[in-house]
Design goal:
Molybdopterin biosynthesis moeA protein, domain 3, homodimer, Molybdopterin biosynthesis moea protein, domain 2, 4 domains, 408 residues, 6-stranded mixed beta sheet
Chain lengths: 408, 408
């Protein structure tokens, strides 16, 4: 197997999308309290106005605003207070010119009221006589019926990741169940004679399966689920059997590791052995992350990730997360900070380069130092807070430049 | 109750920390696969070296590097290939000067090897004769024993939020269970005669309980849990009873809403009615979010949040999240982007001002527009991607300035 026909990340994503244009994730209905971090599978359209009535945004008096015009501290307007609005109830009376009704924050306005004057700008002389010391304008201190959400409005769009604000919107509309995409299912297969699981005894020459644990965590973070996790020796038949299981149970099969030449060759053949288009991408023009294989088998996406932890996570983000995002979600802003670089960062001509960095903050400014860990180290990941991306055509980054650091 | 003695956010956090200096969150041991987003309750110290042996980072030949010195494409060095390292096994033989052993990526090096030459820079003439076309330096393409993690090293610090990299580190050490803080428990009480729950029929004058749903989602997002959620009418006895329940079951009791003057007065009295220091903070110098009450009852934190959804979320982040962070976690970088402001943003002298903004991206640059929704609207939150903070002494933000937008 060669990695000479490497393609860019953008090209790889395009190839994947073209080949999975008809792949659909299922939909389910869940309670809104379980919905955060899930993706909306349909537009949410309001069937009510929010609020359903004109509300006061302050504690004060509902009036007809013309009654306040010309009022000053020295020459106040005098109105007749005719009652009080109870919270959660309709006002008992409407008002006419010259009248005022006490209205608490959130209270419903009498039909004819055109403004609410804050209690601080009034004085109650006796039970009925109210002095007004300031003019107010039409609509002042009112949220009108439908101001927040209008009946028939699309309030949340299909593809939105549900956050606290979205849950709040759903609650305001009285929607307790919502249609979301089922969590995409992943099957993770770690390959290699040297890989042992966490509970096994470590003998010389072996290493523990790091990547599948890190991937497990990444998968859950983006609102997906792991339905199986297996370690397989360097053996074509064993690997094919596990991939077959994975294709049966999951939406996406991840092959992790396989740093030996043998496993890399198997991966190729295994992918090609299933019904479908076989290997679609064979090497990525990124650093690190070149030895990546992407294919299709039995209609499902199979991704062979590089063996080094950092490469594995970067390719997962660039390829797998992007696939999920394009199939289910709209653009989301990737958490980031801007930081001043404290060293020169080299680039690799023709490759998109990812540098892990350590961030420190001083006087509110972030500074980024490259993490000089060797390829293959897990601490290269755990001691970094984020990474800098250097594009294919760029010639590296100079010390002192301000760059975007994407947070891990 | 007055809000004249408002304090800054920093002062409020200091008062809270001083009064809860002895408050401890419990610790539990959980499987690392369930640990993402939880907070480490102890330092993790490695009891092994990672790797436990010198590993190759490439497919190539283990050699004694002096044998490669002087080698060029035209005058290669000639070595004797004496075998192959099997993945996951100890090499069967060591090497002496003049010898080489094939070593795949991740394979264990023979004891005397001081470098690995990449297969691309060699040529195998026959079974035993290896030509080397390039010199390599000492240690080249090797991860030495303990290079990644040293025995006795603190690899993850207490207070770290567990992410994919941390899970990877734990897996590499063979640690399958880890001590984390128990998820802090919250009890949410929504107050107000006008508040109805999501399933109830909406009659004129009522509004649905938005804030407790949004808070529920925020609480889970930061790795905490909600143990109870109640709606209470404007009644001192009912409110006190629920707060008592909350103090019994939870670490933190949140009072949400209570926009009417009556409820605000009750809150004060209710907090003071329990054993402890009573009301600690009475109004915050922020906009929005001023009408916030913080107190201590039966040794627990009680926070009365403002009624408007945006204010509620901002105070939650500034006060409650900060409390959890200071008690459990280390500094974490708040997700943010830098954006050019497209309007002037006013400030409120002497107050920290939070402006919700809508972000758009053009040619890789973010632009921020203030969300002009009225106070009290849930869409002011749901149509914003983040917020700009204007400090107490600042005079607003001018159109065209670059500012940090904190993501919601």
């Amino acid at each position: 197997m060669d990695f000479f026909n490497v393609v860019t990340i953008d090209k790889a994503n395009e190839i994947i999308m073209n080949n999975f244009i008809d792949y659909k994730f299922e939909v389910e209905e869940i309670n809104i309290l379980n919905s955060p971090n899930r993706i909306l599978a349909e537009d949410v359209i309001s069937d009510i106005d929010v609020p359903e009535f004109n509300r006061s945004t302050v504690d004060g008096y509902s009036i007809i605003v013309e009654d306040s015009h010309g009022a000053t501290a020295s020459i106040p307007s005098m109105l007749r207070q005719i009652g009080e609005v109870a919270m959660g109830k309709k006002p008992e009376n409407d008002i006419i010119r010259g009248q005022a009704i006490y209205t608490p924050t959130g209270g419903m306005l009498p039909t004819s009221a055109s403004g609410v004057i804050m209690i601080e700008n009034t004085e109650l002389m006796d039970d009925q006589t109210l002095l007004i010391y300031k003019p107010i304008s039409k609509g002042e201190n009112i949220v009108f019926k439908g101001d927040d959400i209008k009946k028939g409005e699309v309030v949340l769009e299909k593809g939105r990741k549900i956050d606290a604000a979205a849950v709040g919107v759903l609650a305001s509309l009285g929607i307790s169940n919502v249609k979301v995409y089922k969590m995409p299912k992943f099957y993770i297969i770690s390959t290699g004679d040297e890989i042992i699981d966490i509970g096994e005894e470590l003998t010389l020459g072996k290493i523990r399966d790091i990547n599948s644990y890190a991937l497990y965590s990444m998968i859950e973070k983006i609102g997906c689920q792991v339905v199986g996790r297996k370690i397989v020796k360097d053996d074509y038949d064993l690997l094919r059997l596990e991939v077959e299981n994975g294709l049966e149970l999951a939406d996406i099969v991840l092959l992790s590791g396989g740093s030996s030449v043998g496993t890399r060759d198997y991966t190729d053949k295994v992918i090609a052995s299933f019904a479908g288009k076989g290997v679609l991408v064979h090497g990525l023009a990124i650093k690190p992350g070149k030895p990546t294989i992407v294919g299709e088998g039995n209609g499902k996406l199979i991704v062979g990730l590089p063996g080094h932890p950092v490469s594995s996570i970067i390719v997962f983000k660039a390829i797998v997360e992007e696939f999920i995002r394009q199939k289910l979600g709209k653009t989301e802003i990737q958490p980031q900070v801007k930081a001043i670089t404290e060293y020169n960062f080299p680039s690799s001509p023709g490759k998109k380069t990812y540098h892990m960095v350590h961030l420190r903050q001083e006087n509110g400014i972030y500074y980024a130092t490259p993490n000089f860990g060797k390829s293959g180290m897990i601490t290269l990941l755990s001691k970094s807070q984020g990474y800098i991306v250097i594009k294919e055509h760029e010639e590296g980054v100079n010390k002192g430049e301000e760059r975007v650091v994407y947070l891990l």
